[in-house]
Here is the input.
Amino acid sequence: MQATSSVRESLITGGKTVRDVSEDISRHVENKPNRLWWIAFAISLVLFGFGFYCLAALLWEGVGVWGLNKTVGWAWDITNFVWWVGIGHAGTLISAILLLFRQKWRMSINRAAEAMTIFAVICAATFPLAHMGRLWLGFYWALPLPNTWGSLWANFNSPLLWDVFAISTYFTVSLVFWYIGLIPDFAVIRDRATRMGNKTRAIIYNALSFGWDGAAKTWMRYESVALILAGLSTPLVLSVHTIVSFDFATSVVPGWHTTIFPPYFVAGAIFSGFAMVLTLLIVTRKVFKLEDYITIYHIELMNIVIIITGSIVGIAYITEFFVAWYGMVPAEFYAFYNRATGPYWWAYWSMMTCNVISPQLFWFKKIRTNIVATFVLSIIVNIGMWFERFVIIVTSIHRDYLPSSWSMFYPTMYDLGEYIFTFGLFFTAFFLFAKFFPVINMAEVKSIVKSSSEKKH
Amino acid sequence: MSSTGEKFLVGIFDDEDVLLHGVEGIREKGVRIHEVYTPFPVHGLDEVLGYKRSRLPIAAFLFGLTGTSLALIMQIWMLGFDWPMIIGGKNFVSLPPFIPVTFELTVLLAALGMVATFFIVSDMKPYKTPRSFDIRSTDDKHVMAIDLAANKLSKEEIGQILKAHGASEVNEKNF
Here is the structure.
């Protein structure tokens, strides 16, 4: 019933049948994890444990354990926050925007990408929460709750408060969207467990699947829900990084006070997010032997998204410089001059190399279809995107209007420890996800087996 | 599970296109289909089964509208009336800075409200055990259930119709 053009490459290789899809994906949930999984999981837990110690020390001692000073009041905390939120964006882009555009190649990768989104947003949220210092009072500062100050309400004119609403809505809606997608697949595992006689697993996965029956009527409603959630998530994902960029753009700090921040941040977010999806999926497809579902063609398409968004980011960097010169504001001009030639020149040029130059290598088909090259470049892109946030944040504020207060930022063990904490958290969560949840959306992949598989032609 | 005495004839289909044509043909023969269970969404199946379009979009819209109104009322009341404060020399009630929170709460309520409605109308909950006509319906088979009590034709006649329209197996299932 579906028209497929013969020029398009198959999305599923290896002549898979609908049956094979259930088998190949559910197997990882049903079998005991292999040694590689245990090693990776143990390393993540160690990182998590060390990071947790640093986080506890921060909560006990206060924000003073970080390397912040009077001039640089925001550094790694907000850098890491923006970095993680940005990474999350690819998941929603893949599951929502590509659904609206009817891009079938999303189907093999959306589940893992959405999981990445959720874990990345949790990691991001730990930074502003930790930076609050007295976290337990933070709810009164961040949410419009009645309080004993009169009630002195939260300030709705502040972009930081918009962030609270944007990130929490984004997290909730992404979680719901992801879970809705998981429901039919939990039912697959439930029914397989029933057939294998594993009662406990059947009961657990039945509860997780909310008693899914797969009736035509339920599917009809389900599809309607998925489409509307995609429609809601699309402006939502664009709004989230826009609002994150407002944290800077609405201030009057030279180097932050820029109107191109919203589109530039959104493009950067998608850029880094796709890089992280590639890093994770290249490993996942290898460990779980999913080469027939996540093919070279999928990797190539993601690399094309990286070229496009990477180029948008590059143009944004150049535009900022042009406007700093053209705007004739000395402070603004100095902020950019200082970025490229000041004491943080190395951060600036790392960013330029990793984000603007390295993704251009994907113009060569040989490179964008090569797994090792893609894996290396995907990590380089995320290093570059970390430097981008660091450059924007720290180089803009370390030398402000008053030269006597110029300063440098030096991270402490606790700055590093919190960053490591989020890596531990992210990978622990991702490995647990990969073990207990189906990493590929079985129902969606099954629906294209007939039209996009190699065998039936 | 206690017996309810309901008797069903269950047709198994291997292919979604055969199923779609099968449903059309079987309904033309005057057989009333109880429900079809599929492992993945089959496009056009709701139409050939004669289901009306879902009204969930309307629910989403209404929940979204609630979110918009609540967000605006909350912000205007808190900053405009309950405790007005001068912030950056702006008006107490100034709409542009209220837009981000209004948008986020619109999306949040629309999404949560619609999903909750979906669970309620589809009777989905963690402690529900669904009725399974054939356990392979979540794997690779499309399962058509026909309630014998709702049909005038005999079991044998319906079985023949199912076979003629491409069912690979016809089984009986009693609850």
Chain A is about 70% helix and 0% strand. The mean pLDDT of chain A is 90. The radius of gyration of chain A is 23 Å. Chain A has one domain: 18-133+176-449.
